[in-house]
């Protein structure tokens, strides 16, 4: 699915500063304030319900953004799942618990399918008032956020030029800032897992977005 439409290629800028760290792209946003206020748990709202609702929203938005660049994220162009360099490559754990290197589009397809399965599982994400959330619900959401962060990091490092061609940088930057702010608020992503985007996260902090 191509959410924004258009057909654009990718540019190779080996060794160059990532586009998402260059002005005016880095500061492009749909909002100017911090996402802290809309991330915190509202009064009288169950914390698990809040996590569930936001996890669903973030999944849907990230899925749409990957759909907008998916025709350029191919097994030939993105031979491994990474976030900017060979030092930040991700392996998939298969059904035999083996760590395997697979192309980025296949990795992301697995991530999205796995998350969708969890979201559809009533024992994990219950939709009926009389069904309790599982005791390990926070850990499950944390695992989902870790994988969704990898998808975002891959889009930024490998396909941000396409995002620019689609004039969608403000939308993606806004989503990322909200995602990171929410993840921090509920301890959903470890600091080491955010390392591939650390420089941009610092910039967002300086801008007062997170």
Jot down its keywords.
210 residues, Butyryl-CoA Dehydrogenase, subunit A, domain 3, two-stranded antiparallel ribbon, 6 helices, 4% strand, disordered N terminus, MOB_kinase_act_sf, MOB_kinase_act_fam, Maintenance of ploidy protein mob2
Produce a short descriptive summary.
This protein is mainly α. Helices cover 48% and strands 4% of the residues.
User: What is the CATH superfamily label?
Assistant: MOB kinase activator
Q: What is the helical fraction, as a range of percent?
A: 40-55%
As residue ranges, the low-confidence spans are: 1-13
Q: Please tally the β strands and state the result.
A: 4
Taken as a percent bin, the fraction of beta residues is under 5%
H-E order: HHEEEEHHHH
Query: How many distinct helices?
Result: 6
- Please identify the structural class as seen in this structure: mainly alpha
Placed side by side, the strands forming the largest sheet appear as 1-2
Output mean pLDDT: 90
Distance between the termini: 30 Å
Query: Structurally, how many domains make up the residues?
Result: 1
Could you name the CATH class? Mainly Alpha
Protein name: Maintenance of ploidy protein mob2
Write the layout of secondary structure elements.
Elements: H1 36-39, H2 47-69, E1 81-82, E2 89-90, E3 92-93, E4 99-100, H3 104-120, H4 137-165, H5 169-185, H6 198-207
Antiparallel strand pairs: 1-2, 3-4
Helix pairs in contact: 2-4, 3-4, 4-5
């Amino acid at each position: 699915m191509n959410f924004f439409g258009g057909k654009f290629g990718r540019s190779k800028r080996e060794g160059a500063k990532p586009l998402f760290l260059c002005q005016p792209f880095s500061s492009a946003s749909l909002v100017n304030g911090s996402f802290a206020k809309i991330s915190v748990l509202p009064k009288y709202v169950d914390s698990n319900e809040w996590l569930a609702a936001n996890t669903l929203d973030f999944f849907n938005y990230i899925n749409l953004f990957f759909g907008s660049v998916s025709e350029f994220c191919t097994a030939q162009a993105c031979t491994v799942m990474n976030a900017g360099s060979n030092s930040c490559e991700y392996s998939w754990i298969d059904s035999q618990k083996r760590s395997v290197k697979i192309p980025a589009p296949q990795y992301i397809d697995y991530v999205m399918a796995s998350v969708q399965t969890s979201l559809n599982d009533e024992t994990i994400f219950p939709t009926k008032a009389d069904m309790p959330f599982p005791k390990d619900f926070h850990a499950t959401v944390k695992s989902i956020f870790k994988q969704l962060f990898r998808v975002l990091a891959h889009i930024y490092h490998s396909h941000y030029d396409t995002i620019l061609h689609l004039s969608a940088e403000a939308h993606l930057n806004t989503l990322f800032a909200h995602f990171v702010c929410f993840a921090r608020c509920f301890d959903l992503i470890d600091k080491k897992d955010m390392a591939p985007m650390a420089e941009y996260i610092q910039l967002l902090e300086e801008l007062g977005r997170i």
